[in-house]
Structure formats: structure tokens, C-alpha cells
Amino acid sequence: MIIKNAEHEITAVKPNQYPVTGFPEVAFVGRSNVGKSSIINTLLNRKNLARVGQTPGKTRQINFFAVNGNFYLVDLPGYGFANVSKEMKASWEKIIETYLYSRRQNQLKLVVMLVDIRHSPSKDDIVMYQWIKGYGMNSIIVATKADKITRSQINIRLNDIRKVLQLDKSTKIIPFSSEKRTGREEVLEEIGRSLFG
Ligand code: GDP
To answer: Which controlled-vocabulary keywords does the entry list (predicted)?
Structure first.
């Protein structure tokens, strides 16, 4: 898929603030600091569209990026911040779950779940993946920061992630690096396929 243009359309918290165009959506989820803003910028060929390195207080929102005038990349709040209150955690969960629930039947075509290739998925990641499956969503896993490990470690790490998340055989897991732009074409291809067949 070729990215012709991309723009930030709206920041939302509640469903009545989501776009009403009916365009299909691809949502990105993952722990804070996993590289979510970086992958969105890399996919869209933009340096700073999704802000990199946001602070916890500012990220409890959903950002919709309109791409090629016919679909959205949706940046969901990062989860798993250390040292946040129970209330804050619950509010993130509600924002993410409400989004998945509202969009599951029509707009939402693919959930891209990000995990850091260097680490085994956390409890939060496991819960997140179970939600995605529970809602019957089409998903792929992207293992970020692949430039931080050696080539020979990549398959070992992917197998570990696959095992911990208990991925189905059919679920793709793609190593990705925003630094080196590796995995970009493959992720775009999956997005294109999920959106337009
Ligand atoms: P977010 O909190 O998930 O949006 O994560 P960011 O995109 O802000 O990235 C968090 C940190 O990881 C930043 O310092 C990025 O520069 C770094 N980072 C993100 N992706 C990569 C990558 O592919 N390779 C390397 N080496 N660093 C990355």
C-alpha cells in the first residue's frame, strides 16, 4: 500500500467524539514506550505526526489520523505505566475497551498490537490480546525495536512472544524497526489487505 497523504483529524475520548465519516480503521495498541508513536510516524512517512515520548497524563486520548482520504490509523492510549493510580489505570482501560467495543462490528478492520521484541509480553499485554480475541478482532502482532537485537536472536524472541501470548498459528508476528524502517512494507501490506481485501 502506498501512503499518499496523512493528517491528524481529531483527538477523542468518548465515542461521540469519534469521526463520523464511516471510513474503515486500523487501531494501534501497546504498552507506553513500546514505540507506538514511532511506528505510526514511520508508516506515514512523517517525523512528528504522532508525538514521540508523550508523558503519562497527556496520553489518555485516542488520536485519529486520516490517511489517503479513505481510512484512519487510530492511536489508542498506551497502557502499563508504572506508578499510576488505580483510577488512572481504570480510565485507560475504559477508553480502550469502549473504543474496541464501539468499532468492533463495522469500522475496525485490524488491530496492530505492539510488543517490544526484547521482552516477554507483560500481564497487561496478555490481557490486551485476550480482549482483542474476545471481540473477535482481526489482529497482527508487531515486535518493535528489532534493531536492538541481533539477527540470530530475532526468531528466538518471536517464538517466545508467540508462546506467551498464545497466538494462533494464523496470527502474523512481524519484526519492526522505526530506526531502520524494517518491516514497514510488510505491515503496510497487512493493513492494505485488511482494509481493502
Ligand atoms: P510510545 O510511548 O509507544 O508512543 O513510544 P515512542 O514511539 O514514543 O518510543 C519510545 C522510545 O523508544 C523513544 O525514545 C523512541 O525513540 C524509541 N524507539 C521507538 N521505536 C524504536 C525502534 O524501532 N528502534 C529503537 N532503537 N528505538 C525506538
So the answer is: Cell cycle, Cell division, GTP-binding, Magnesium, Metal-binding, Nucleotide-binding, Septation
CA-nearest residue for atom 2, ligand 1, is 33
Residue 1 falls inside a structural domain: no
User: DSSP string spanning 78-109?
Assistant: PB--TT--HHHHHHHHHHHHHHHHHHTTTTEE
Whether 27 is covered by a domain: the verdict is yes
**Residue 158 falls inside a structural domain:** yes
Per the prediction, the chain carries an average pLDDT of 93
Q: Which residues of 56-81 are buried (b: 16+ CB within 10 A; e: fewer)?
A: eeebeebbbbbbeeebbbbbbbbbbb
Q: How many domains is the chain built from?
A: 1
Ligand 1 atom with least separation from CA of 31: 3
CATH number at residue 50: 3.40.50.300
pLDDT in tens, 36-57: 999 999 999 998 898 765 555 5
Q: How far is the CA of 124 from the centre of ligand 1 (A)?
A: 19
pLDDT digits (tens, 9 = 90+) for 67-124: 999 999 999 999 887 777 888 778 888 999 999 999 999 999 999 999 999 999 999 9
| Domain region containing 127 | 6-196
Cα of 16 vs centre of ligand 1, distance in Å, is: 31
**Residue 56: predicted pLDDT:** 54
Smallest CA separation from ligand 1 atom 9, residue? 35
